[in-house]
C-alpha cells in the first residue's frame, strides 16, 4: 500500500477494532517475547522447578478461564456464538484436565493435590479481573478481556517455533506444539471476528472499557511469566 493510501485508510478508520487493540498493547506484547521465562521455555533451558510452578498455577488459571467462556455463553446475542463459547468452556476444562493427568503423573501429584495449590497473587488478580469484566460486561467486553489469552499464546507459540518444530527430546515440546498449533490459532481468529463485529455497534464508553480491559489483560499476561520466573508468593 502506498504511503498516501495508508494514511488515508487510517484516517478513515479502516483498521479492525481487534488490530486497533493490538496496536495499543504492542509494546507489552513485544516485551513478552523478550521475557526470560519465555526465552528459556523456547530453548528448553527453563529449570523444571519453574515450569512446575507455572503449570500448577496455569491449571488453576484455566479453571477460571473456562468460567469466563461460560459467562460468554450466557451473554452471547446469538446461538452460534453461545454454542462456540460453551465449546470453549468445555475445551478449556479438557486442556486443564490433561495438564493434571500428564504432569500429575510426572510429578507424582493427585488431581486433589494439584487443585489445592494456592493461587499466587498475580494469578489471583488476573483471574479476578477477567471474571469481573465477564460478569459485569457485554459479550463484546467478555470476549475482549479473554482475547489476549488466546492471541498472545498463539503469537508466543509461533514465535518460539519460528525456526522449526521442537526436537523430540525438548522438555517442553508438548507445550510448544499445543500453542503453536493451527487449532489453537483458530480460537483467537474466531474471537477477533466476534470482537470486530460487535465493536461496530458498541458505544464510545463501551469501546473505551474494551481498550482498558484488553491492555490490562495484556499486562497480566506479561506478569504471569514474571510470576512464574520469580515463583511469586504472598508477602505475608
Ligand atoms: C496465563 C495463560 N494465558 C493464556 C493461556 C492460553 O489460553 C494460558 N494457558 N495461560
Ligand atoms: C483459550 C484456551 N487456552 C487454553 S485451552 C483454551 C481453549 C481452547 O483450546
From TrEMBL:
InterPro entries per record: Haem_Oase-like_multi-hlx, Thiaminase-2/PQQC, Thiaminase_II, Thiamine_Salvage_TenA
UniProt keyword annotations, A-Z: Hydrolase, Thiamine biosynthesis
Top-rank taxon, per record: Bacteria
GO biological process, alphabetically ordered: thiamine biosynthetic process; thiamine diphosphate biosynthetic process
TM region positions: none
This protein's pathway: Cofactor biosynthesis; thiamine diphosphate biosynthesis
This enzyme's EC code(s): 3.5.99.2
Residue ranges constituting the Thiaminase-2/PQQC domain according to the UniProt record: 25-230
Broad class of enzyme this protein falls into: hydrolase
GO molecular function, one term: thiaminase activity
Reaction equation(s) it catalyzes: 4-amino-5-aminomethyl-2-methylpyrimidine + H2O = 4-amino-5-hydroxymethyl-2-methylpyrimidine + NH4(+); thiamine + H2O = 5-(2-hydroxyethyl)-4-methylthiazole + 4-amino-5-hydroxymethyl-2-methylpyrimidine + H(+)
One Pfam family here: TENA_THI-4
CDD domains (UniProt xref): TenA_C_BhTenA-like
A cellular component term, taken from the record's GO annotations: cytosol
Family membership: Belongs to the TenA family.
PANTHER family found in the cross-reference section: BIFUNCTIONAL TH2 PROTEIN (PTHR43198), SI:CH1073-67J19.1-RELATED (PTHR43198:SF2)
Function: Catalyzes an amino-pyrimidine hydrolysis reaction at the C5' of the pyrimidine moiety of thiamine compounds, a reaction that is part of a thiamine salvage pathway.
Protein name as it appears in the record: Aminopyrimidine aminohydrolase
Organism (species): Nitrospira moscoviensis
Amino acid at each position: 500500500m502506498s504511503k498516501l493510501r495508508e494514511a488515508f485508510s487510517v484516517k478513515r478508520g479502516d483498521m479492525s477494532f481487534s488490530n486497533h487493540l493490538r496496536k495499543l498493547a504492542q509494546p507489552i506484547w513485544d516485551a513478552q517475547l523478550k521475557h526470560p521465562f519465555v526465552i528459556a521455555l523456547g530453548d528448553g533451558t527453563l529449570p523444571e522447578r519453574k515450569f512446575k510452578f507455572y503449570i500448577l498455577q496455569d491449571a488453576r488459571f484455566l479453571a477460571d478461564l473456562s468460567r469466563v467462556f461460560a459467562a460468554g455463553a450466557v451473554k452471547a446475542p446469538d446461538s452460534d456464538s453461545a454454542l462456540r463459547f460453551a465449546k470453549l468452556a468445555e475445551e478449556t476444562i479438557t486442556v486443564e484436565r490433561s495438564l493434571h493427568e500428564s504432569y500429575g503423573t510426572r510429578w507424582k501429584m493427585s488431581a486433589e493435590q494439584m487443585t489445592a495449590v494456592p493461587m499466587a497473587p498475580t494469578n489471583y488478580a488476573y483471574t479476578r479481573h477477567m471474571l469481573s469484566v465477564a460478569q459485569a460486561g457485554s459479550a463484546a467486553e467478555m470476549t475482549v478481556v479473554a482475547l489476549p489469552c488466546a492471541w498472545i499464546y498463539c503469537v508466543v507459540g509461533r514465535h518460539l517455533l519460528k525456526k522449526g518444530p521442537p526436537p523430540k527430546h525438548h522438555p517442553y515440546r508438548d507445550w510448544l506444539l499445543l500453542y503453536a498449533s493451527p487449532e489453537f490459532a483458530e480460537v483467537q481468529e474466531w474471537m477477533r471476528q466476534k470482537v470486530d463485529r460487535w465493536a461496530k455497534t458498541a458505544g464510545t464508553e463501551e469501546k473505551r472499557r474494551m481498550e482498558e480491559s484488553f491492555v490490562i489483560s495484556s499486562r497480566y499476561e506479561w506478569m504471569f511469566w514474571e510470576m512464574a520466573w520469580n515463583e511469586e508468593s504472598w508477602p505475608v
